[in-house]
Amino acid sequence: MTTIDAPRAPHTPAVKRRRVNWEKWGWLYMRLSGVVLVVLIFGHLFVNLFLGQGVKAIDFAFVAGKWASPFWIVWDTLMLWLALIHGGNGMRTIINDYAHGRLRIVLLTLVAVAVVALIVLGTLVLTTFDPCPAGAPANLVPSFCPAK
């Protein structure tokens, strides 16, 4: 007679391999990044819309003045990275739920490429932004730049 193990009996495979549980880490990332993003986004909106003169005051000079401070560069970079990875992870979850086979691999690759490209481009903009580049023609630089 064959006996069946109890449903809650510990399973002991022949070769025990410890693998990273990517779904658990993705789930945990979504929760933690979501909390941090709420703080970053509402802080961003509060400073940009409520402390000044509202949306009508947001122009090139406002952004240039804000990005003159390393604090705001770090704030916006962190918001960019967390939001893009959070969104990419959400898309990965949706693709895993609804796509199968080769289509799944293609879609996951496209999402990964888009997230990486946007992170690289956004980070380059945030870290290399200079509203008054040296040697630029006077008619192409904003009026608040010193004469060169």
Tally of distinct domains = 1
Given as residue ranges, the uncertain stretches (5+ residues, pLDDT < 50) are: none
Question: What is the CA-CA span between the terminal residues?
Answer: 94 Å
Level of helix content?
A: 55-70%
Topology pattern, helix = H, strand = E? HHHH
What is the CATH class name? Mainly Alpha
Question: In DSSP terms, counting alpha (H) and pi (I) runs of 4 or more, how many helices?
Answer: 4
Identify the CATH homologous superfamily.
Fumarate reductase/succinate dehydrogenase, transmembrane subunit
Largest sheet: none
Structural class: mainly alpha
Radius of gyration: 24 Å
Shape: elongated
In the CATH classification, which architecture applies? Up-down Bundle
Strand content: under 5%
Oligomeric state, counting identical vs distinct chains: single chain
Mean of residue pLDDT values: 88
Q: Quick one: how many beta strands? A: 0
CATH fold name: 3 helical TM bundles of succinate and fumarate reductases
Question: Could you list some keywords that capture this structure?
Answer:
148 residues; 3 helical TM bundles of succinate and fumarate reductases; 4 helices; 63% helix
